[in-house]
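Section 5.1 Outputs to date
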Amino acid sequence: MSERYSRQELFLPIGREGQKKIAAGHALIIGAGALGAGASESLVRAGIGRLTIVDRDYVEWSNLQRQQLYSENDVIKKLPKAIAARDRLQRINSEVSIEAKVMDVTAGDLAELPADCDLIIDATDNFDTRLLINDYAQFHGIPWIYGACVGSYGLTFTVIPGETPCLNCLLGHIPVGGETCDTAGIISPAVQMVVAHQTAEALKLLVGDRKSLRGKLISFDLWNNRQAAIDVSGLKRDDCPSCGNGRTYPYLSQSNHMHTAVLCGRDTVQIRPPKPLTRNLRELGRSLAESGYRVEGNDFLLMLHADGHRLVVFSDGRVLIHGTKDILQAKKLYHRYLGS
């Protein structure tokens, strides 16, 4: 066992002292899909002392192409991703303390998250949760590492409270919706590239080498051979409600998250965004149709047929999901097909 981390200790920026810091570290990973599976395995193999994994979903066949911790047996058993990830990771490194939480992360659930962690890795699939993570991290002063990918494209940025712009500062400068892995697909190298950036930053934070943090927004498209490192330091806003001088942490309030309701007498869940928005129904319909989904509609609404359900989208952002009374399932379908 003394040889386990020897190659990592030979890397001078880590060394033996850095390895001790990693072993004393605690990371919170929110989301156990492709990014979460990759990041958690990298950190567990690196010898992190404690890991908390949070996810609301279970393992499906479509996950196996890119979500490296899971097996066909996990699909057959319909295991929650957090549980399947914990069990697999514990077999990889029994020295690590791993806690699995099967839960949806909403403003009302924050008390169940550990506020004593050293860093948070974003492995979610929607901006509703990311903005909640952002405010939670700002409130507790916890560094967090944003990551996203779809198709062959990826994006990542490390947020340091009090130093860098936060995600709320960057809104309007990064893509916040549109295509998802279920509508545009994804290739596993894009996942691995984001994971590599996220976990490298995580190791720097764990060993205390903050001067080596990249400090830039990284974006890339592996298929079209493009990469950019963008200096966004000038986007930090003094009036930002999440990290500015008069911060109010707006996304810690339930009122600033999507509103869900089971419609009385109907097998339907209604989802409304926290603030009114305007959806381009023609563009959305064209994108979904090109991905092979059955869509129909008019000037007032778009109807998508998928997974035995009907999703009716209105131009003001409101969505009716027919065929279920389960709010968690409805939210899953919403994010799967409509993005943020």
